[in-house]
Amino acid sequence: MQFSERISRMSVSSTAAVLQKAAKLKAGGARLVDFGAGEPDFPTPEHIKAAGVRALQENFTRYTPTGGIRELKEALVARHAQDFGSRYAVEECLVTVGGKQAIFEAIAATINDGDEVILPVPYWVSFLDIIHYAGGKAVRLETRESDGFAVRAEDVEKLVTPRTRLLIVNSPSNPTGAVAPPAEMEKLLGLAQRHNFLLLSDECYCHFVYDEVKPYSLGASGEREHLLIVGSFSKTYAMTGWRVGFALGSPELLGNMLKLQSHSTSNPTSFAQKAAVKAVCGPQDSVREMRDEYHRRRDRIVPGLRAIPGIRCTMPQGAFYVYPNVAAYLKNGGLADTTALAERMLEEAHVALVPGAAFGTNEHVRISYATSMEQIEEGIRRMAEFFARL
Ligand SMILES: Cc1ncc(COP(=O)(O)O)c(C=O)c1O
């Protein structure tokens, strides 16, 4: 059997290998500390689940409009307006099967063979594979750990060429937790307008920001042609399995994205959309509670990691990841790379984390603190012991 050249440009997520091994160990009865998963450990809030159940009981089980039910689009743009001061019309909103589908469709709808996409490194791995699948060329924007992995407009501008079609910004970032301040985001949008490319702003983690950082969306800028906002219910409302996300942008771009959706998945699941309506219209206390809990965990795990000799760790301002630098142990511990380190950590300490290779860097590992404080305490203890032995 011969497979397409296009599919050969994609690889199975490099996060998967370690996580698969972790799952195997778990199934075999090992008491694992799992820092691998990129999803909330909280259940979906009760009132949202109840809305999904009610929709099922009321037989809301048929196809819906491909781009989502109007009720959800209205609720989404109203929520976004209330939270961020944006003014999107219902026609400027597309409901998708998770934020990931919106990202896939946006890249597929804008990129021709050889077009350039500026991608800040470290990146969320799916961005890279989708760019490759679409025939695009990923142009790496190397951020600096010493600068908190900040994406700076002046660095982006140096990479712009006549073939630049897209810049992808994910703030707060998976995997670093770095947050781009509003002034920098506005500069990035200015570049997109001046050089006529699209800024894809992935705001999946926008509600989880800490200290004095406030939730922010570039959507308030009023820009349409050069800006696409992607959001998700997965993290904000602990709804990863429901698969609901959205995009806000120009009707022209959304219309092209919708073509792909209509010939692939069709509508996002009908009753999940009803649950999503409840999520955005109902009380937002659960979002604040989860944010406060992530904040407490961040404030425990970062000092815990920094207390391990040789480990450097930036202070993330958002999302639920830390991205410590473990280079000292690669050289001295005789490990080839962070993948080898993650494998040994898993085997010897039963701690699962994701090697930085998955996100385009060589000296880091990603630790998700979307897990209980007890697991964080135990994980820090095991990691400290493991590194001390190396
Ligand atoms: C940066 C980023 N964007 C988008 C997504 C997509 O999330 P979903 O498709 O569940 O909405 C994720 C999920 O991990 C993510 O980390």
Characterise the protein shown here.
The mean pLDDT is 96. This protein is 44% helix and 13% strand. The protein has 390 residues and is α/β, with parallel strands linked by helices. The radius of gyration is 21 Å and the shape is globular. The chain is built from 15 helices and 12 strands. β5, α8 and β6 form a beta-alpha-beta unit. The longest helix is centred in the last third of the chain and has 22 residues. It has 2 domains: 143 residues, Aspartate Aminotransferase, domain 1 (Alpha-Beta Complex); 220 residues, Type I PLP-dependent aspartate aminotransferase-like (Major domain) (Aspartate Aminotransferase, domain 2, 3-Layer(aba) Sandwich). The protein has a 7-stranded mixed β-sheet, with helices on both faces. It has a 3-stranded antiparallel β-sheet with strand order 9-12-11. Strands 1-10 form a two-stranded parallel ribbon. Pyridoxal-5'-phosphate binds next to α5.
In a few lines, what is going on in this structure?
With 390 residues, the chain is an alpha/beta fold.
What are the key terms here?
7-stranded mixed sheet, globular, Aspartate Aminotransferase, domain 2, 12 strands, Aspartate Aminotransferase, domain 1, 3-stranded antiparallel sheet, 390 residues
